[in-house]
Amino acid sequence: MPFDTTLWLVALIVFVGIEAATTALVSIWFAVGALAAMILSFFTESVSWQMAVFAVVSGVTLAVMLPTLAKRRKQNRPPVTNGSPLTIGKQGTVLVQITPGDLGRVRVDGLDWQARAEQPMAKGVKCRVDDVDGAVLIVSPVTADTAAV
């Protein structure tokens, strides 16, 4: 394998490795450019042509993806805080007593959460998650009626 082909292969591996480590689309454009330059290295020994192809392909890849990325960034999606919306409807156990107006703690799916309730709940009581407010769960006691839900 010619030296320039090996150089582009190493560059490709490095750029893909950086991309895999960051997962933030910081070097994927250069990986595509390095792949194009490596393919060209099979057909020509001109390093200047290979560098030009690397630069152009990397630039075009970036130019094509940039509008899509900018559009995704402007989408207003509510943040998911620690997966708490996924706990709605699940049952847990009160770890620290909850009194109306004060925060307590509950364990749901093996994770401890701050919790709020409209009625007092003692430690050890089973509770159900009715809603979330940021990273605070809104809970209610599990009764015979709600235990089957």
Describe the structure in your own words:
Helix 1 runs antiparallel to helix 2 and helix 2 runs antiparallel to helix 3. It is built from four helices and five strands. It has a five-stranded mixed β-barrel. The chain has 149 residues and is of the alpha+beta class. The longest helix is centred in the middle third of the chain and has 28 residues, at 47-74. The model has no long low-confidence stretch (mean pLDDT 88). It is 44% helix and 21% strand.
Give the N-terminus to C-terminus distance in angstroms: 66 Å
Strand content: 15-25%
Content-based structural category: alpha+beta
Q: What proportion of the residues is helical, as a percent range?
A: 40-55%
Break the fold down into its secondary structure elements and pairings.
Layout: H1 3-22, H2 28-41, H3 47-74, E1 91-96, E2 104-108, E3 111-117, E4 126-133, E5 136-141, H4 144-147
Helix pairs in contact: 1-2, 2-3
Brief synopsis:
Helices cover 44% and strands 21% of the residues. The chain has helices at 3-22, 28-41, 47-74, 144-147; strands at 91-96, 104-108, 111-117, 126-133, 136-141. A five-stranded mixed β-barrel has the order 1-2-3-5-4.
